[in-house]
Amino acid sequence: MRIKHITEISYAIMFARWRQTLIAAIGVTFSIALFVALLGFMEGLNRLLDGMILNRTPHVRLYNDIKHSTNQPIDLSTDYLQYHNFVHSIKPDNARKEIYNAGEIINALSTDKRLLGIAPKVTAQVFYSLGAINLNGVINGVDIEQEAKLFSLNDYIIGGNYLDLINISNSIILGKGAANKMQAELGDVITITTTGGEQFSLKVVGFFQSGIAELDNVQSYASLSTTRKLLGVSTSYINEIQIKLHDMNQAPAIAREYEKLFELDAEDIQTANADFETGSSVRSTISYAVGITLLIISGFGIYNILNMMIYEKMDTIAILKATGFAGSDVKQIFITIALSIGIAGAIAGAIFGFLLCLAIDSIPFNTAALPTITTYPVDYNILYYLIAVTFATITTYLSGWFPAQKASKMDPVIIIRGK
Questions:
Q1: 137 and 49 in a common domain
Q2: pLDDT, tens digit, for every residue of 251-290?
Q3: What is residue 69's predicted lDDT score, i.e. its pLDDT?
Q4: Which residues of 401-417 are buried (b: 16+ CB within 10 A; e: fewer)?
Q5: Of 239, 270, 301, which one is at a domain's C-terminal end?
Q6: Is 76 a domain residue?
Q7: Does residue 110 share a domain with residue 259?
Q8: Which of 32, 159, 175, 399 would bridge 303 by S-S if both were Cys, CB 3.0 to 4.6 A apart?
Q9: Domain assignment of residue 401, yes or no
C-alpha cells in the first residue's frame, strides 16, 4: 500500500507541472538520441576506415626478411676475441627470400585451432610496359579463393570476376590506378617485364580498387602458378605465409611463438598498423566523450528542474510529513519522479537515435576511392543503446537524489510557519 501511495503521489506531482516534466524528458531524449547517432556514425566510419587497411592485412605474416650477416670474418679470428670490432656498410647475405619447407609449415599451422585461415603468397617485382615507358609494379601471386575468403578481396573488385584467375591461365587483375595509366580494358593483353629482363603477356580479367591510390597504382593480383612462372621458380616456391586468427588480439603473442618455432621473421597486425590503430582509438574516445558530456548536461537539467519543483512544492512536502510520511518516503517520491523522467526519456531517445541512424544510413555517399560504398556507414551495435540507457538512468537517479535528500530533511513546522 505504501509503495502504491508513493507512486500515485509521484505521478500527481510530476503531471501537475507537466511542462517542466516534458522539458526534462525531452532533454534526456535529445541527449540519448545524439549519443546513439554520434557513436553509430563515428564507429561506422571507424569500421570503414579500419576495413580499408585491416581487412586486407594478415593478423600474422611469416616471411624471410633481408638482413645483413651477423657473423663477420673478423669474428672468426682468435687473435681479436678480446677486441671490440666495428664493421661498417655491411651488405645483406645471400639468403633467399623463399620460405624453406613451406608446405610442412602450412600443414603444421593448419592444426592450430586459433587460426581462422592460411593464405600462401608469392610477390614479384615487375614493370608494366607502356610503350617506351616502364611503370613500377608488384604482382601478388595468391590463392584467390583464400584471398577472397580471408581478406574480402571480392569487395574491392570493380570489374570482371576474380575466379577467372583460376579459370584462365596467364591472367591478371590490375589495380585501377595502373589500369588507368595503361588504358587497359577487360580482355586486353598487357606486357610486363620482370626484374630479370624477361617479358610476359598477361590477359586482364578484372580490376580492383582498394581506395588507397598508392596501392592501386602499383599492385595487381595473379595466381600462384602464374607468378611462379614469372619468377622462374619451382611450383613449391612461397615467400610469404599470411595468417588470419579468430582473435586478432592474440596476434603479437602468436607471432613471437611462430618466429621461434619456424625460425622465420613474423610481423603481427598491431605492429604493422600501430599508427592507424591509434587514430581509430582516438576517434572512438572523442565520440564517447562527446556523447557522455551530452548525457551529463541533460542530468544537470533534470537536477535544476527538480530543485525548482521542490521549492514550488514545499507546502505539499509539509502536508505529506504532517500526515505521517517519513523523510525517506518524501525522498523516494522525488527519486521516483527523476527515474520516471530518465527512463521515459532514455527509451524515447533510443528509438529516435535508431531513426537518426537509419536517416544517416540512407544519405548517398559516392566516392571513386570507395566504389563499393553507396551510403554513409553506420554501426547499429546494441551496446551503444545499452550504454546510453544505463548511463541516462544513473545520471537521472543522481540528479534526483540530491534534491530528494534536501526535501527529506525539510521541517514541516518551519514550512507551515513560513506560509
A1: no
A2: 999 999 999 999 888 988 888 776 666 666 777 777 778 7
A3: 63
A4: bebbebbbebebeebee
A5: 270
A6: no
A7: yes
A8: 399
A9: yes
pLDDT at 23: 77
pLDDT value at residue 133: 79
Q: Let me know if residue 80 belongs to a domain.
A: no
My answer on whether 193 and 255 are in the same domain is yes
Grid cell for residue 354: 535508431
Query: Are 220 and 318 within one domain?
Result: no
Does position 414 have pLDDT exceeding 70, yes or no?
no
What are the Cα distances from residue 140, in Å, to 23, 160, 165, 205, 231?
61, 18, 12, 15, 12
Return the HEC string of the chain: CHHHHHHHHHHHHHHHCHHHHHHHHHHHHHHHHHHHHHHHHHHHHHHHHHHHHHCCCCCEEEECCCCECCCCHHHHCHHHCCCCCCCCCCCECCCCCCCCCHHHHHHHHCCCCCEEEEEEEEEEEEEEEECCEEEEEEEEEECHHHHHHHHCHHHHEEEECCCHHHHCCCEEEEEHHHHHHHCCCCCCEEEEEECCCCEEEEEEEEEECCCCHHHHCCEEEEEHHHHHHHHCCCCCCCCEEEEEECCHHHHHHHHHHHHHHHCCEEEEHHHHCHHHHHHHHHHHHHHHHHHHHHHHHHHHHHHHHHHHHHHHCHHHHHHHHHCCCCHHHHHHHHHHHHHHHHHHHHHHHHHHHHHHHHHHHCCECCCCCCCCCCECCCCCCHHHHHHHHHHHHHHHHHHHHHHHHHHHCCCHHHHHHHC
What cell does 375 get? Answer: 551510403
The CA distance from 231 to 221, in Å, is 14
| Total number of domains in the chain | 2
Q: What residues make up the domain containing 121?
A: 60-70+90-270
Regarding whether 262 and 296 lie in a shared domain, the answer is no
Q: What single string gives the DSSP state of each residue in 260-303? A: HHHTSEEEEHHHHTHHHHHHHHHHHHHHHHHHHHHHHHHHHHHH
Choosing from 270, 298, 316, the residue where a domain stops is 270
Gap between the Cα atoms of 4 and 21, Å rounded: 21
Whole-number Å distance between alpha carbons of 193 and 82: 51
Tell me the per-residue pLDDT of 164-221, one tens digit each, with 9 for 90 and over: 888 888 999 998 888 888 888 998 999 999 888 888 999 999 998 877 778 888 899 9
> Does residue 181 fall inside a structural domain?
yes
Q: 244 and 96, same structural domain? A: yes
Same domain, 294 and 374: yes
